[in-house]
Amino acid sequence: MSRRKARLTAVQYIYSKSFDTKDSPREFMDYLESPKKENDKDFAQMLIEGALDKKDEIKELISRYAEQGDDIISLVDRCILSVGIFELLYVKETPPPVVIDEYVEIAKELSKDSSRSFINAVMDKVRMEYDEK
């Protein structure tokens, strides 16, 4: 559960960056008082930095697999996908189906009902593409 809080915090930080937050990831986590454990804060920071670093590559993947069109994806869903796709492709400590399930759960918490299947579909397509390589 603590890794989910780290993932959720990473998504929230990426969302806040869309509004030009000046807080560092650590300042943001301290403000939210989440996650609590230092290793979970490190995990969240790694997700944040990675998602920001790979932003262009991830944006291209979202555009490729978002069937309804990239221009109408909600900001929340885009942030969930950004962090989720980064973890799926670059962090190999959690099996891909578990990673996808975690971000579907985050979508349940942060977004509308239809987002769950959308997040699942896009992340699964990305997983399948990279499994073939």
Describe the protein.
The protein has 133 residues and is mostly helical. The protein has one domain (2-132): N-utilizing Substance Protein B Homolog, Chain A (Orthogonal Bundle), CATH 1.10.940. 77% of the residues lie in helices and 0% in strands. It has helices at 2-17, 25-32, 38-53, 55-65, 75-90, 96-110, 113-132. It is globular, with a radius of gyration of 14 Å.
SSE topology:
Blueprint: H1 2-17, H2 25-32, H3 38-53, H4 55-65, H5 75-90, H6 96-110, H7 113-132
Q: Can you give the mean pLDDT?
A: 91
Strand content: under 5%
Q: How many angstroms does the end-to-end distance come to?
A: 31 Å
Rg over alpha carbons: 14 Å
Give unreliable regions as ranges: none
Helix amount? over 70%
SSE string, helices as H and strands as E: HHHHHHH
The largest sheet is: none
Structural class by sheet pairing and helices: mainly alpha
Task: Tag the structure with descriptive keywords.
mainly alpha; single chain; globular; 133 residues; N-utilizing Substance Protein B Homolog, Chain A
Quick take:
The chain is mainly alpha-helical and 133 residues long. The protein has helices spanning 2-17, 25-32, 38-53, 55-65, 75-90, 96-110, 113-132.
